[in-house]
Amino acid sequence: GGSAGLFALVAAALVQVARAEEEEKASPKDIAIAATLIGAVAFQMGLFHLTNHSDKDMRKYTYQVINQTVSIFCAVLMFSTFNDVVQEMFLDGTSPERKFLVNMAHMLVWFILLQVLLAWVCGVIGKEPESIEEVEADAKCFGTLLAHITGFASINAWGSLQQIAFFSATPAHAFLIIPISFVGQFLLQRSTDTLRWKVAMADGETSEFEEKWDEETEEAENDIMGLTLSFNMIQVVRYANSNYLPDEEGQEPMDILAGHTPLEIHRLWASAVIFLISLCIMNYFAHPAEEGHGHGGHGEGEHGHAEGHGGHGIPGGHADGHSPGGHSEGHSNAKKSFFEELKERSWEVMMLALTMGFAWCCFYSARMSLASIELLQDNMVLAMALTLSISLVSFGLIRVLDLIADLDSTGPRVDHTIFQIIRALGLLVGFGWEQTFDQAVESISSSIARPHLAKFVLAAFCVIVIVPAWYKYILPMAISDCWEWGFLVHNLDDPLEQERWQRVAEHIEEKRKKSAQKNAEEGGMQSCYVRLTGNEAGQIVELQNENIRLRGALEKALLVLKDKEDDEFTRASNVQADIQQMDGMVGHLRTAEQVLHTP
How far apart are alpha carbons 105 and 91 in whole angstroms? Predict the structure, then answer.
């Protein structure tokens, strides 16, 4: 009977195998969904490891990468939604020239909104906040989000100009967009900077809120120009490399993407290396070897000057969160000349463009490399595989670079260069996930009868759910020192917050007491074991007597401490009474003095 059952079980298994072989293979959509699911879970679990890493610097870098990735995702989703509306209303069947003008007007709307909204958040418009701390998180939130949205709108505007027949004719013509976009963005920045200066100096002086407005807005403007120039630069490099100009979003058809030769892929990787070398040289020779920028205790993997956040989540500024040569101390009463402004802005933007250019170049090089694999020649599968590969390699390189920076043999210049490379790698991860999110939204909306409505719903979901969570829980971890201990510390003046941390303190104290008691018991048991192994009968009695003696000594010590505490309390009370008596006497003397001086 048992053998017959076993035979039936084996036969059933063979039938199932035969049926499985007859079934069709998984569709590309099934593979994309599976890749997305596995990739998302794997990445999320990896983030748990990194946000709880034993090295504080790794926790900091992880939170900064998460911060810029989520902000870029939200910005891309909202920009894509509004851009679809603009295309549907104004660009259906229009000429390339009109498309450029409409896209430029779209970018200007976001640029003006950035100025006005940051002025309102910083208290320049409307009610003035009570303290500068109140506007810090709000300014970073709106500054980061609007900088990314306006940056992608600027990429779209200048990219549409690059697609016009004259500029797309040759790589040399396409290169002209880089100086043209720089001049255009610089004049726009110069105009808004002059306007902010006039508003700030309307009363003859600048307040700390007006300085904050100028600082946050200028960082956002630099990020916008850095995004624009770096992307246009990479478009020219890709055009010259493969003799094909991608569209204004940097996309290529899958047949062209998969058909790149190994030589073209290697040349694009070599371009990334050139960007990296240029970035390192500029950072090394431009960064002064100042004191305070040295090593700050390498035993714990912490750097003395790695406390900055690279502006609005886009790694490119100095370690103190300001770009070199910018208005780090707000507006001065003397307005800077045109050439001074041009020199400072050019240097800042060049650093940002090299940082972002390295990230863009690595992204498209890796995309071309993976697209040559037949299994990955589906847009969603390729995007997910690319992002996971970029994330894994980037975080591995960040860890290696962090260990190098922890060495005592590296000086401030080398450390600052290493940190700039780490910021570029973090930006690479952000670009990777941004492209994946964009492809995911495109895949979902394309399968629905009304794709524009689908994108609008996704954007509304982003604003309602993701942006508040990012603002409350992720952004504060990246712009403050909360990454050091792994949790947020809110306003301690709030009674609920005080009660919360009181419970945490009591829990820690209880854990310490239990640990100390356990260690004492283990130490006592070990001592008793050592003594009893001597096979001497009197040792037990000696231990008991010693225990009694120690307890008595502790009780006496406690009584002495109690008496001293009572004496100190009495002495403090007497001193307080004497002070009050002297205050009374001083009051009487002042009264008498007033009477004597009265005519």
Answer: 12
Structure tokens at 405: 């920076």
Phi, psi torsion values for 12, nearest 5 degrees: -65, -40
C-alpha–C-alpha distance, residues 396 and 385, integer Å:
17
In order of 89, 135, 214, 473, 490, the CA distances from 493 in angstroms are 51, 18, 30, 19, 9
DSSP 3-state helix, strand, coil percentages of the chain (rounded to 5)? 80, 0, 20
**Complete DSSP assignment for 330-357:** ---SSPPPHHHHHHHHHHHHHHHHHHHH
Across-strand partners of 303? 295
User: What is the DSSP-derived secondary structure letter of residue 582?
Assistant: H
Please say whether the beta carbons of 445 and 458 come within 8 A.
yes
CB 425 within 8 A of CB 397: yes
Check if the beta carbon of residue 384 is closer than 8 Å to that of residue 444: no
Distance CA 506, CA 109 (A): 53
**Three-state DSSP class for residue 303:** strand
pLDDT value of position 311: 46
Other beta carbons less than 10 A from residue 564's beta carbon: 10
Burial of 134 (0-12, 13-18, 19+ CB in 10 A): middle
Task: Give the Cα separation of 200 and 125 in Å (integer).
Answer: 11
303 φ, ψ (degrees, to nearest 5)? -105, 145
> Looking at residue 117, what is its pLDDT?
92
Token pair listed for 227: 């995004």
Element (H, E) at 132: helix 132-162
**Per-position DSSP letters for 485-545, written without gaps between them:** TTS----TTSHHHHHHHHHHHHHHHHHHHHHHHHHHHHHHHHHHHHHHTT--THHHHHHHH
User: Is residue 262 a contact partner of residue 385, using CB atoms and an 8 Å limit?
Assistant: no
What gap in Å lies between CA 56 and CA 299, rounded to an integer? Answer: 11
How confident is the model over 93-134, as pLDDT tens digits? Answer: 788 888 999 999 999 999 999 999 999 988 888 887 877 777
Q: Count the Cβ atoms, other than its own, within 10 Å of residue 102.
A: 18
The residues, ordered by sequence, that sit 6+ positions from 363 with a Cβ below 8 Å of its Cβ are 386, 390, 428, 431, 432, 435
Structure confidence at residue 541 as a pLDDT band (50, 70, 90) = low
What does the alpha-carbon distance between residue 222 and residue 324 come to, in Å, rounded to a whole number? Answer: 11
Encoding tokens for residue 69? 């990735």
Q: What pTM was estimated for this model as a whole?
A: 0.72
